Amino acid sequence: MVHPVKTNLAAFLFFILCSLIGRAGINLTPSEVVVDFDGAKCKRVCFRNDSGYIVYAPPDGWSYNGSSGNFIAQSADANPATLTIEPLSVLEPFVLNEEQKKRSAGQIIAALPKGCEKVTLVSQSANQIRVSGNETMETIVSYVVYGRTMEMSVLDVNFRSEILRFKLVSDKPVFGRAHDLFCVSLTSWAQSQKPPQPAS
């Protein structure tokens, strides 16, 4: 005889497993599309997620590539600035408080390349940058590696269904300009249920 409690528990666990499998989140493999803004045709990259499509314009003139798990864009400079977008695996709620800021800064610094020196927490801010109205937390650090002084912005965005991490790294002298271009690009991030027109 099969115990009804065990049967119900097994059915519940199977339902949870199917829900997790069916919810794939964002796929960061980029495709080129054209978006119409009041008659003006603008090129964008397009990602897929559970709600449909996301269109985004990387900083102008930057090259890019991606796969299902991450998207990378680079400036055309001799020592290029690099932007990486990837889903963030977290088991805790996205909470914007001092404890979370401290924990996040510690994790970001701990993940820096081996051999880094003069690591400095430059700033941390909550919701100074909004992405499609969603909550964000940005951590900026500087460090020296192989004689180069680098600066890095890590922006975590709470899209409710998942958290995306936008990481911008560049040589410190050009970080300000690269960061400005990055912030401007974030204003183009938009969700759409309808498939955009493929670029020809």
Task: Write a brief caption for the model.
With 200 residues, this protein is of the alpha+beta class. The protein has helices at residues 4-22, 98-110, 172-186, and strands at 27-37, 40-49, 52-56, 63-66, 71-74, 82-87, 117-126, 136-145, 148-158, 163-171, 190-192, 197-198.
Structure characteristics:
alpha+beta, seven-stranded antiparallel beta sheet, five-stranded antiparallel beta sheet, 3 helices, Protein Transport Mog1p, Chain A
Structure description:
- The protein has 200 residues and is α+β, with helices and mostly antiparallel strands.
- It has one domain (25-194): 3-Layer(aba) Sandwich (Protein Transport Mog1p, Chain A), CATH 3.40.1000.
- It has 3 helices and 12 strands.
- The strands form 2 sheets. The protein has a 7-stranded antiparallel β-sheet, with helices on both faces. A 5-stranded antiparallel β-sheet has the order 11-3-2-1-12, with no helix packed on it.
- The protein is globular.
- Mean pLDDT is 87; it is low at 9-23.
Blueprint (SSEs and pairs):
Blueprint: H1 4-22, E1 27-37, E2 40-49, E3 52-56, E4 63-66, E5 71-74, E6 82-87, H2 98-110, E7 117-126, E8 136-145, E9 148-158, E10 163-171, H3 172-186, E11 190-192, E12 197-198
